[in-house]
């Protein structure tokens, strides 16, 4: 999946810079990199994880998509 590397690291994300920040130079996307991703349920299956009690998600605005991923943990 393409990941947007922005001039200011903390704004880098899988999501494109919103129009609200587009005029701010520090939010400019300077490079896109192809990042391999895996669904959480696939990771759990591959590693024998049957339960998750707590999960920390810090995905720069991509939390909803990340949390939609697990189906069987």
Explain this structure.
The chain has about 70 residues and is α+β, with helices and mostly antiparallel strands. The chain has two domains: about 35 residues, no CATH class; about 35 residues, no CATH class. It is built from three helices and two strands; from the N terminus they run βαβαα. It has a two-stranded antiparallel sheet. The longest helix has 8 residues. It starts with a strand and ends in a 5-residue tail after the last helix. The mean pLDDT is about 80.
- Structural class label: alpha+beta
The total count of strands amounts to: 2
Shape: elongated
In the predicted model, the low-confidence regions spanning at least 5 consecutive residues are: none
Proportion of strand residues: 15-25%
Number of domains: 2
How would you summarize what this structure contains?
This protein is an alpha+beta fold. It has helices spanning 19-22, 40-47, 63-68, and strands at 2-6, 29-34.
